[in-house]
Amino acid sequence: MHVLEGKGIQYIKGSKTILDIDYFSLEEGKVNSLIGVNGAGKTSFMHILALLQEPTAGQIYFKGETVTKKNLLKLRHRMAFVFQQPLLLDMTVRENVETGLRLRKFPKEEIKQRTDKWLEKLGISHLANGGVRFLSGGEAQRVSIARALALDPEVLFLDEPFTGLDSPTRGQLLLDMAKLLHGTKIATLFVTHDYAEIPYLAHWLTVIDQGKIIQSGTPEEIYENPKDQSVVRLLQWLPLGTK
Ligand SMILES: Nc1ncnc2c1ncn2[C@@H]1O[C@H](COP(=O)(O)OP(=O)(O)O)[C@@H](O)[C@H]1O
Ligand SMILES: [Mg+2]
Predict the structure, then answer these.
(1) 92: exposed, middle or buried (C-beta count within 10 Å: 0-12, 13-18, 19+)?
(2) Which bin fits 42, alpha (ψ -120 to 50), beta or left (φ > 0)?
(3) Which of 25, 82, 95, 184 has its CA 20 to 30 A from that of 146?
(4) Ligand 1 pocket member 13 (CB < 6 A)
(5) pLDDT tens per residue across span 175-195
(6) Tens-place pLDDT, residues 136-155
(7) What is the position in ligand 1's atom list of the atom closest to the CA of 37?
(8) Atom 16 (ligand 1): residue with closest C-alpha?
């Protein structure tokens, strides 16, 4: 089922067309990975789909319902985000996870219950009452993931959340994310510039370059049949030393 769809999305700033995308969808229970080099338009596109940025042209649909100024805030509450920088507030780990739930005015008991559950699932229960400024990069990102998933979102946006972590930390977090997401109904947009992260999480792969989708399919399809050299380069397939 389509959870989120974008049709005819254009985003123009001055004389520059930053995005020009005919159609894109996120499906229930699936992770769609958007891959592209720096400046390809990944973050801009994510912000438009996440209803944080209005496109110059085009329409977003949430479970078939057209997004309008009227329903936008309500629909945004059914989505959650994890950014490259965890953006934690200078409070305890527990308070950070509780923040979004408080804003959405959940009852006190449910806030505690959900927070405990997601701290546990992310393996950070032991850090609950400590401040966030002493956390490692991986721990901080776990807090930010717990904060997002505690909201029980229908759509989850991950904007290069593993970039900048050392590789054992990143590998473990990717494995844990796969366990948390696969088998749920959450429709996930996973933005990355690093092809090595794809096999862990992605059901579907969308390759973006200069604001346009240049290829999409299952990771296997794209690996086996890359459209052109730019896709090959992006997937870093050339044997070492080849130009
Ligand atoms: N508000 C803006 N005004 C002008 N240019 C922008 C704006 N936002 C993004 N861009 C440009 O759009 C392109 C895509 O940026 P971005 O979406 O951040 O790419 P990515 O996340 O793939 O690195 C870049 O060339 C960037 O400089
Ligand atoms: Mg970006």
Answers:
(1) middle
(2) alpha
(3) 25
(4) yes
(5) 999 999 999 999 999 999 888
(6) 999 999 999 999 999 999 99
(7) 22
(8) 41
Check if 44 has its Cβ closer than 6 Å to any atom of ligand 1.
Answer: yes
Query: Distance between terminal CA atoms of the chain?
Result: 41
- Is the pTM above the cut of 0.90? yes
**What is the domain partition of the chain in residue ranges?**
2-234
Q: Is 215 in the pocket of ligand 1 (CB under 6 A)?
A: no
SS3 27: strand
Would the CB of 42 count as within 6 Å of ligand 1? yes
Whole-angstrom CA distances from 121 to 21, 38, 60, 86, 181 are 36, 32, 32, 18, 12
Centroid of chain to Cα 123 = 20
Question: In degrees to the nearest 10, what's the CA dihedral of 57, 61, 62, 64?
Answer: 170
Q: Is the CB of residue 82 less than 8 Å from the CB of residue 31? A: no
